[in-house]
Request: fold
Amino acid sequence: MIGDAVFLQGKYDRMHITPDNKLKKLIVIGDRLLIKPAQANERTASGLYLPPGVQEKEKVQQGYVIKAGPGYAIPVPVEDEPWKGEEEKIKYVPLQAKEGDLAIFLLSGATEVMYEGDKYFIVPQSAILMLEREDDLY
Reply:
């Protein structure tokens, strides 16, 4: 267990929210995603060792989606019909990203936050370039 997330062994390590996880208290708003950055390789393909700050300054980062917001809100037409019952006023277009996906995103669109000593990024869906999803997890 690393921080508040659990790694599942498989083709790639995946992070998931567990019932005893403190991240369940967080609510992600709108079209945003909470992403835990993936562990950077300390060594390049040619064998050079990089200092920790080098990977963090790259324009494109990757990490695991920990939580996803409800999506894009759809405006509801105003109808004041007295005979109509009350129903849910807000509807959403869901996001493509799901919890556990590996997301590759633009760092310029992300906001870095620290929560209980761990680093996370809050990223709008528009800053996501690509997702990788294991089919057997869903």
